């Protein structure tokens, strides 16, 4: 019998792997509903859904490997990164899904959330004030009107698979919906700034680099405390705190 591998587990959800099957356990069925609907609408390769019996969603493993992980080395050829960019452009150009996503919070709501989080990071002694202040300044460029796009909403580098130079699939769509396309681009290249040009070569659209840089800071500021509280190491080399330090 295949061993059971715990891919990720925290208080909100868990993902297990048994052979070529991933079992996603999530008590929030509305979040799973979004994932299933988004995969059905997305014009890019997604995993096959094998079955769903709440609170479990079973999906098939994808062919290939990821282009890396946050805090680890990036892999893949320049062409593979360009292929990832082309897949993101296809997604962002697709008809909008009929619901807002994580990347679609209003500027006012996002600003309020960011200000509250920055205050907590300093007040609780998680990060030094100068680091938070500088990155809050950088993040300002992301707080602007944006044209809605079909966004993945949590497009970490580990969520896109390639086989050679071909994108074989994108996983974890529970945060998908209408949002800022630059958020996806920034999330995918977080901690791997040296591959941004390769990604954009395939994306093929005008991109405001200041906004990408701003989303690196903004996403990291919002993530650090949650990661610490849920047992993840945001201070590991190459991860969120290093991303914030690079803005100094």
Distance between the termini: 50 Å
Order of helices and strands: EEEHEEEHHHEEEEHHHH
Morphology call: globular
The level of helicity is: 40-55%
Strand order of the largest sheet: 1-2-3-5-4
Query: Averaged pLDDT, please?
Result: 95
CATH superfamily: Aminoglycoside phosphotransferase (APH), C-terminal lobe
CATH-defined topology: Aminoglycoside 3'-phosphotransferase, Chain: A, domain 2
Query: How can the largest sheet be summarized?
Result: 5 strands, antiparallel
The number of helices is: 8
Category by helix and strand content: alpha+beta
**What is the CATH-assigned architecture?**
Alpha-Beta Complex
Q: Topology, please?
A:
Blueprint: E1 4-9, E2 13-18, E3 21-26, H1 29-41, E4 49-53, E5 56-60, E6 65-66, H2 78-92, H3 107-123, H4 129-139, E7 149-151, E8 160-163, E9 166-170, E10 177-179, H5 181-189, H6 196-203, H7 209-229, H8 240-246
Helix pairs in contact: 2-6, 3-4, 3-7, 4-7, 5-7, 7-8
InterPro entries: AGP_Transferase, Aminoglycoside_PTrfase, Kinase-like_dom_sf
Protein name: Phosphotransferase
Domain Aminoglycoside phosphotransferase: 39-205
């Amino acid at each position: 019998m295949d061993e059971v591998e715990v891919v990720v587990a925290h208080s909100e959800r868990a993902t297990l792997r048994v052979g070529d099957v991933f079992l996603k356990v999530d008590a929030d069925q509305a979040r799973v509903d979004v994932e299933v609907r988004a995969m059905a609408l997305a014009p890019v390769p997604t995993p096959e859904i094998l079955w769903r019996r709440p609170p479990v969603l079973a999906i098939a493993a994808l062919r290939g490997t990821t282009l890396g992980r946050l805090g680890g080395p990036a892999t893949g050829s320049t062409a593979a990164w360009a292929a990832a960019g082309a897949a993101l452009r296809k997604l962002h150009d697709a008809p909008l899904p009929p619901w807002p996503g994580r990347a679609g919070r209003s500027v006012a709501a996002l600003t309020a959330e960011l200000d509250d989080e920055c205050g907590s990071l300093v007040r609780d002694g998680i990060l030094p004030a100068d680091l938070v202040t500088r990155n809050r300044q950088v993040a300002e460029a992301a707080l602007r009107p944006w044209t809605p796009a079909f966004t993945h909403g949590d497009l970490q580098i580990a969520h896109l698979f390639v086989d050679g130079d071909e994108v074989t699939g994108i996983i974890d769509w529970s945060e998908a919906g209408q949002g800022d396309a630059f958020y996806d681009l920034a999330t995918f290249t977080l901690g791997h700034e040296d591959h941004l040009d390769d990604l954009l070569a395939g994306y093929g659209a005008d991109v405001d680099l200041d906004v990408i840089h701003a989303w690196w800071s903004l996403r990291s500021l919002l993530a650090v405390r949650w990661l610490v509280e849920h047992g993840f190491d945001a201070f590991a080399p190459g991860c969120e705190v290093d991303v914030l330090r690079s803005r100094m």
